[in-house]
Amino acid sequence: MYTTLIDASQLQALRASGQPLLVFDCSADLMNPAAGAQQYRERHIAGAVFADLDHDLSDKSGTDTASRGRHPLPNPHKFAAWLRSVGFSNGMQAVVYDRQGVNFCGRLWWMLKWAGHEAVAVLDGGLQAWEAAGGAIETGDAAPRSAGNFEPSAPKRRLADTASVVQGLSGAQTLIDARAAPRYRGEVEPLDPVAGHIPGALNRPFQSNIGPDGRFKSAAALRAEFEALLGGRDASTVVHHCGSGVSAVPNVLAMEIAGLGPTALYAGSWSEWCSDPARPVAKG
Hints:
Blueprint: E1 5-6, H1 8-17, E2 21-25, H2 35-42, E3 44-45, E4 49-50, H3 76-85, E5 93-97, H4 105-114, E6 120-123, H5 126-132, E7 137-138, E8 159-160, H6 162-168, E9 174-177, H7 181-185, E10 202-203, H8 219-230, E11 238-241, H9 249-257, E12 264-266, H10 269-273
Parallel strand pairs: 1-6, 2-4, 2-5, 5-6, 8-12, 9-10, 9-11, 11-12
Antiparallel strand pairs: 3-7
C-alpha cells in the first residue's frame, strides 16, 4: 500500500501486478477553470479518470458543505457518491497526479484520507515524470467504468474549521501559510478581497517542497527545513492553510514524508478567514 508518494516505476509495476488501482488526473488552473479538463483530453496517463477541482473536489452549491471559502469541501457522502460514479471502491489503491507541481492533486490525496481511505499516493514528479519514464498515455475522454462501492469511514486526517483556528490564536496552535511570500505579506492579493495573513502564521510557499527535478525533496531535507521553520514548536500543533485549502496540501504531505505528520488542514483557509471583517488580519 502506498500512502504518501509513488514514483513512475512503482506505478508501472503496480499496474502490471493487476492489483485494484485507480489513477486520477487532477490538473487545474485557478485562473481558467476549463483548462484542467482540456489538458486531460489532450493527454493523460492511460486509464486515468479526471477529477475536476471546481466540480468534483469542491462543492459550490452553498449548502451542506464541509468548509467554506473559494473551494468548499463537499460533505463526505457527496464526495463518496462521486468516487463511486467514477468506479472507485474501498479496496483500491488510488494514485493522484497533476502537471502543475503537485499544486492540485494533493487536494484529492487529502480528501481520500479525510474520507477514511489510507491507500492513496501522489505520483512524484507528476505527468512529466510518467512521460519521461515511458509510461502509457491516452487522449480524449475517459472510457466508461462500472460503478464502485466506496463508502466513507472515520476520518484519518483532521479538518480544522474557523472556530478552532480562532480559538488556537491564543493557544498552542502553529499556523503554516502555503501562499507565495508577497501574498502572505499582504503586498498583493489576486484572488481574495482582502490582503494579508492570519496573525501568527508562518510562511512556507508550497513550491518549497519540490526539488529542481520536479520531485519532492528527500525526507531528511524536508525534515530539516520544517524543523527550522517551526523553531522548536511541536509539529503536532500545526494547522496548514493557503488561499482556499488546495495548495496547502503539499505542505501537509511534505511533513508526513519528513516523519512530522499527520497535521491538520484548515480547508477554508484565507478565503474563508478574510470573509468576515471582524477577524484579525496581519501584514508584513
